[in-house]
Structure formats: C-alpha cells, structure tokens
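If you are new to this repository, start here. Below is one unmodified record pulled from the training split, so you can see the exact layout before writing a loader.
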Amino acid sequence: MTATDVLPVLASPVIGSFLGVVVARMDVPSSIVVGRSCCTSCGTKLGALDLVPVLSWAVSRGRCRHCNAGVSVFYPAIEIGALILALWAATLISGPALWASCLLGWILLVLACIDGTRLILPDFLTLPLVLLGLGASFLFWREDFSAAAIGAVAGYGAIRLLGWGYQQIKAREGIGLGDAKLLAAGGAWVTWVGLPSVVLIASFLALFMIAFKSLRTRALSPTEPVPFGTFLCMGIWLTWLYGPVAFWF
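And here is the target side for that same chain:
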C-alpha cells in the first residue's frame, strides 16, 4: 500500500459519517447537502465535537450530550463499515483505481442499508452508479468499455425480463425496477462477463437468509418481500474485487 493509497482509508470514517446522513435523509435528497446535522430528539444542531466518527458516539456512550437521548448504533456502524470496505479494497487494488473502488463500495453500502430496511433502491444513487461505472471503465480499463456498456444494458434487461415473466405467471410484481437499475450499475462495473456471478452470489445469499429466517421463525410467507438489492450489492462488490466466480477456484 503506497502513501497515496492510504488517503481513501484515512478519509473513510468521515465519508462513512456522510453515508449515514444519506441513509437517514434519503426521503429528501436535497437535505443531504444543505441540511445541518442535529439531534433527532431535541433538535439541537451538532457541532464538531459531536461529529467525530465513532469516537463521539463512544465517548458519549451512545447518547446525545444535550438531551441524553439514545443515538442509534447505526451511525458508528456505517462509519466502521466504510473503513472496512476501504481497507478491503486497498489490499487488492492500488493507484487511482482504488478511489473508484472505494466509491463503488461506499455507494453499495448505502444502497444495501436502504434496501435492507426500506425495500427501496433510490434513483439518485443507482443511476449515478451506472454512469460512474462506465466512467471508471473508460478512464482506467478502456479496453473493457464496450463490455461494460453491454453489461449495463444486459443487467437492466435481464431483471426487467425476469420481472415481466414473474408477473405473467403470478399476476403480481416479483422484483422491483430498482433492482434492474442496480444490476445495470453492476454490469457497468463488472461488465457482462461478471453479471452471472453477481446474480449467483446474490441468489445464494438471499436463499441462505430465507432458510435461516425460516428456521428461526418457522413461519415464512411465500409473499414476504426480500431485500434482493442488498444481496445484489454484495454480489457486485465480491465480483468487482475477485472477478467471476469461475476464477475463484
């Protein structure tokens, strides 16, 4: 790891703090940029001492120092998550491409959190991720640009076709348009060659989650929604770092 490669790692906790804001304010995207951070209980605007990643939460023992209300563990968790992703990427990638990889990981982290809790994949994150993937391919791996463009189209089309087929058979929506846009982004980053691996990993992890949940509750409805976008995020990240599954063995 070079000195330059350390920069995204050092910046990742601060960026993770911003990612927490994105998740919390996703209903009003404009507030992400212009709104000041404040306590959700007392409304007091937070100062620099309240916003030190992880440390502020730990020192205050997970409570607002103004009104003593509890502060969710989600905030230090996403800051640590952003750090882990940057470290993970830095062990495999170096140079300017590391920043692109970290950016991919951080956006996927936000999307996974939102879909896991809200079953939504917002356009203001998925659509730019498509463009960023194509841009990264053009800048760093220009010989793969056409494969990335084909991957974006194929990823979107595959999910749309799958959703249409499910609706024809079951007469209800089975997979959301957000998943199609997310897989389009995945195709832009891992190219069409990596798309099967993304879907395979996501499907395996989703089935594992369903099986685990059914063992715990023993009552799982077949119509219960599954945050498939969260698992697609995991599939995209692993395929981006390690290549298609066939290359793992």
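Two things worth knowing about this chain: The radius of gyration is 19 Å. Residues 1-91 form one domain.
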